[in-house]
Fold this sequence. Notes:
- It is a single chain.
- By secondary structure, this protein is an alpha+beta fold.
- The protein contains 3 helices and 6 strands.
- Strands 1-2-3-4-6-5 form a 6-stranded antiparallel sheet.
- Pfam families: DUF2170.
Amino acid sequence: MNIHTIANHLNDLCDKSHTGLQFDCYPIDGEVEVLQVNIVGREEIPVFVSVTENQVLCISYLWGEDEVNQDRRLAMFETMLELNIPMPLSSFAKIDDKYVIYGALSVQSDMQEIEQELSVLSDNCLEVIDEMVEYLK
């Protein structure tokens, strides 16, 4: 399992996707191989995929610390904690000054499971942004 296998599968799906979504994938060069997965119609919230020895990690960046209304920051954290469990296949985290939503799968996952994770993560991003807008500037 590697990002190129995932990219080839997703790019070749076209309208045969089990999720009804279309994917547009681009490998990103760097120390760690990363695949940028754009979902057609949702390009502003790409999912970044990396593969390690034991997991496929999928991350979407939501907003930066500079976009948070500092007076509402604590309430935002509480809402994030409350949303974490009912949000299927996804969790919140912070990378440097960026808030993210992520999900992980086993490297033994098949392509349909990866497609499903990407779909759910993307759907969750849209829902989270709608839910959290009151905490942002």
